[in-house]
Amino acid sequence: MLTTTNISKLKKEISKAKKNNLTIGFVPTMGYFHKGHLSLMRAAKKKCNFVVVSIFVNPLQFAPTEDLKKYPRDIKRDCLLAKKEGVDLVFIPQVKEMYPEGFATTVSINSTLTKTMCAVSRPTHFTGVVTVVAKLFNLVTPDFAFFGEKDYQQLLIIKKLVVDLNFPLKIISCPLIRDKDGLALSSRNKYLSPAERTKALSLYKSLLAAKEAILKGESNPEKIKKIMQEVLKPNTKIDYIKIGNPETLEDLKIIKKKVLIAVAAKVGTTRLIDNIVVKLS
Ligand code: AMP
Questions:
Q1: Confidence (pTM)
Q2: Which of 112, 113, 168, 246 is the most buried (most CB within 10 A)?
Q3: Distance, CA 174 to ligand 1 centroid (Å)?
Q4: pLDDT tens digits for 4-32?
Q5: Known catalytic residue: 125?
């Protein structure tokens, strides 16, 4: 497995792979790998014969008050794990490689997708994400790029980016991976004390309570929100609960067919997100 911090080395390796007619799969990450990240690499490896993983804690997607500095990092361990998954190339740029002095261009999406959920409390976040992903797509020029449903809103936004700017690649969405007890895997889980980790389970429990009520016939989103609040309130500070259309993220007035249920909440100082999609037959 090759690793590089350097854009020209990355490009050289990519053109070699292209000359050899290899299909390029790309998994962008911020590192500190868990089984969620590894599942994306595995999916990429299955579909493609040259897999590139990027590790970059992107300052552009963090607000000044957020956890950029303390975001967990362990490049050595990440590289060992990526190697085990058969990854071919790990790109680990420095901030100045991605944003050299004078960098002045951002890509932002003006859509209902970027005006709801996480965008409300993190108004600059998705512009940061979309800008870095657009840059990485231009550098890696993948045939397929793999994103997790854990970041459901991000996944839809990246799909929109690809369509709107005609990136010649296909986005592959991968299922959300949970710990045995149901907690959605996240690098930020590292911030949680054992007591907070137990409290954090209430995110998934609230989603399950919502699902159960919907499957029993409850179709009023406000009633579902109340059920979720009862589970969440004792343990977390709720940022939002979304009962929405899984394609457009628009709020639903009545639940039918297919619904996205998503939640963001703080446990102590750690902000966590989780979601499920419920289908009614
Ligand atoms: P991150 O390093 O948190 O920016 O995540 C990099 C990629 O891994 C994104 O596409 C995430 O959606 C995906 N990812 C993170 N956590 C999970 C998870 N628990 N299950 C599946 N994919 C995940």
A1: 0.98
A2: 113
A3: 9
A4: 999 999 999 999 999 999 999 999 999 99
A5: no
